[in-house]
Design a protein that fits this description.
294 residues, alpha+beta, Phosphorylase Kinase, domain 1, 2 domains, 31% helix, globular, binds adenosine-5'-triphosphate, binds magnesium ion
């Protein structure tokens, strides 16, 4: 039987935040219990239907990348002794395999997006303005075209229920400061580049991704939340890649396409997903996990 968790219910700890996907509890002054649930959102709206084990897969994939890039940037994994977690056995069983105990960080209030291909909101911006986040791009690019080089396209982090807004690097510097802006950009591009090479060897194209950063009590920049998962990234199968069409992917594009196909718009109640969409999405998330971590 598949393990499904839509919303966690840990009574022994205080829930301090419920995101679209993660439930966050306070462990102590310096630590958070972050549970990846099976909730799925499209266009920033949570759907009623969970994708079984998605949270476990996201947790596994993130931990794989966090450790891989440990030499580039500190990550939020804390090394807190799980046996010291003050929750019941029943509560532990509910979240096993889908949680981390993270350093409690002060979130940097921007999303750090890197793109190598033109798709999604970047493609929409390009069609209307010829640019993304103020960055000029060549004319005549198509949907899914490869960009001349990696671009860093930050967005401001919106409150739950709102959409993020693309901003220029100048605007980011005003929000985050010069030093952290430069560091975040440099680290994001480097991780993207290294991850692309790893994925390329597995016939996967990393089209774009989003990173989140926070600062520790002593001001150290740290990567947090999730990294290079099918929720935060677009992964395409190299073999079927073609310019001009939305490529076959190992991510949520399948769900985005489905909700568009039933003419759902985000002012209507979020639709239930049919079983075949749930199953197919589960397979895609699982495939990426298997390809990466064996
Ligand atoms: N180590 C950490 N310290 C402090 N906050 C964290 C840490 N790791 C993650 N977070 C925050 O916890 C929340 C996790 O919830 P979730 O991933 O569901 O995010 P969300 O903001 O609803 O959606 P999205 O990730 O799609 O923007 C996010 O607000 C994230 O910024
Ligand atoms: Mg998140």
């Amino acid at each position: 039987m598949k393990n499904i968790l839509h919303t966690s219910n840990i009574k022994s700890l205080k829930k301090i935040y419920q995101g679209k996907v993660r439930d966050v509890y306070e462990v102590d002054h310096d630590h958070l219990l972050i549970i990846s649930t099976d909730r799925v959102s499209v266009f920033d709206i949570i759907l009623p239907t969970p994708i079984p084990e998605k949270g476990i897969i996201l947790n596994n994939v993130s931990n794989f990348w966090f450790k891989k890039f440990n030499n580039i940037i500190n990550n939020h994994l804390s090394g807190f002794d799980v046996s010291k977690l003050k929750i019941s056995d029943e509560e532990y069983n509910e979240i096993e395999g889908r949680f981390v105990i993270a350093k409690k960080l002060k979130p940097v209030p921007i999303e750090s997006i890197v793109r190598n291909y033109l798709i999604g909101s970047g493609y929409s911006d390009y069609i209307t303005t010829g640019k993304i986040c103020g960055i000029d791009l060549p004319e005549n690019l198509k949907m899914a075209s490869k960009l001349p080089n990696l671009i860093f396209t930050p967005s401001s982090k919106a409150a739950l229920g709102d959409h993020d807004v693309n901003i220029s690097f100048e605007e980011m510097r005003e929000i985050v400061g010069d030093q952290n802006s430069s560091l975040i950009k440099e680290v994001s591009l480097k991780i993207f580049d290294e991850a692309s090479k790893i994925l390329e060897s597995k016939n996967i194209i990393l089209a774009d991704t989003k990173f989140e950063f926070g600062t520790s009590a002593d001001g150290e920049l740290t990567i947090m939340d999730e990294i290079l998962t099918s929720d935060s990234s677009r992964f395409w199968l190299s073999d079927s890649y073609e310019e001009g069409i939305s490529p076959v992917s190992l991510d949520k594009q399948f769900i985005r396409d489905y909700v568009k196909s039933i003419s759902w718009n985000d002012t209507m109640p979020a639709p239930e997903l049919p079983d075949y969409i749930v199953e197919k999405t589960f397979e895609k998330y699982k495939d990426l996990n298997r390809m990466l971590t064996g």
